[in-house]
Amino acid sequence: MVFSCMRVTRRDAGRACGTPKRASGLDRAVNDLVVKGRLFLPDGRIERGGFAVKGGRIVELGAHVSGARTADHGERLVVPGAIDPHVHFRDPGHPEKEDFGSGTRAAALGGVTTVLDMPNTVPPTFTREALEDKLARASAKACVDFGIHLGLDEKGDSLALLPEATSMKVYLGATTGNLLVRDMALVRRALEAAAAARRTVVFHAESQACLDAHADLLTDEYPTHATARPDRCEAEAIEALAHAADATGARVHIAHLSTAAGLATLARSFTAEVCPHHLLFDRDRLREGGRFKMNPPLRTPEDMQALWSALADGRIACLASDHAPHTPHEKATERARSCPAGVPGVQTLLPVLLPHRERVGLPRLLDASVAAARIFGLSRKGALAPGMDADFAVYDLDAPRPVRTAEMASRAGWTPFEGLAAVFPTHTYLRGAAVVEEGAFVGENVRGRFVKPE
Ligand code: NCD
Ligand code: ZN
């Protein structure tokens, strides 16, 4: 039984204004849901239109699609759910700081429908046991889809697990979690294994030899966190990688690219991501204390400008939050060296950048929010097109409001973006199910699934 009224939002409401009629071959009203609004289309155009959802997938695009329910978002923007390829949930290890429940709730409230979780958990994601444990935790609690980056242990034993993970993360510089890899022969082996398994390898690109050479610049004054991790450390790591990756055919992705020098050394075949904090804050903010300490550190205004222009022209393909939920107490220390590096950000990834959309153009910004689907081979993610998962978010671009800590769902309980203008989604859907409606979380019964390249 279907209804001809297109303005209704619920099946029951349809009875009041529609005459029940039988579904025919031509009438696609057997679809579960029709979504209308200003759609961000795969070719980059933004146009009024609609799509139909059935069984959690987009089945058809067009002005005349029909279904059991219609959600008409009018002039609001309807975009594919963002993919954040870089989050540090602390599950297992420190679920009181963030678990897959709180972290993915924050993601959904920020329009993110897929997160890729980093391996520097406790224990690190090195073994089958650790991978399966993380998968079980996420499957029980996540309300958006999730992928798992495998870590690289010092013997390279984890490489055998690559086909079971979404991707791999390798740390070329020391940071939270101590997963540092110094042996470039091992990196080369990892790249060969990843090429064979068709998995992308993500690199934290700060050269440890370079960091060691500058370590004596570090004091307990916060600004020295930036001077002791200079831009050339990023460039050197990327150069070393270009050498290690040569002729392996591996897909190399540079995490949180932060400098003009790093950008200049980026090999053509590499992809890179940029974080909102590196685009929006310069290193002077470190004078304010630990809330602006992260790895890589905040940079100069010239670096920020270089990142914006690379995001605009596509040399930086992708956005990422590097969501790192340290506690306010940990970040409040006056001793810079004892402050852990990292800032929360999964809920604000696209929202804090939307007010700056003119700097790169709205279609480019939206494309960067889903580019991780291509980079990590997630073929059902990142586009409003038939066959894709019906993961999408709805934005009213005319309604920016300041970021407020009280609205952040992360257990971190703070945000470095407090007070900045942002556009949060009014709605977020995962495979056709509402997770956020009118800005409120409604996804208690929605469960995310594990994603990896097929
Ligand atoms: C991250 C964390 O806390 O897990 N911190 C950070 O400063 N980015 C680790 C990392 O990715 O460097
Ligand atoms: Zn990180």
List the helices and strands and how they pair.
Elements: E1 2-3, H1 11-17, E2 20-21, E3 33-40, E4 46-54, E5 57-61, E6 69-80, E7 82-87, H2 100-109, E8 112-117, H3 128-141, E9 145-151, E10 167-171, H4 184-197, E11 200-204, H5 208-213, H6 224-227, H7 231-245, E12 251-254, H8 260-265, E13 271-274, H9 276-280, H10 301-313, E14 318-319, H11 328-331, H12 362-375, E15 392-395, E16 401-402, E17 421-422, E18 427-430, E19 433-437, E20 440-441
Parallel strand pairs: 3-6, 7-8, 8-9, 9-10, 10-11, 11-12, 12-13, 13-14
Antiparallel strand pairs: 1-2, 3-4, 4-5, 6-15, 15-18, 16-17, 18-19, 19-20
Residues 88, 120, 175-177, 204, 294-295, 322, 324, 341-342 line the site of N-carbamoyl-L-aspartate.
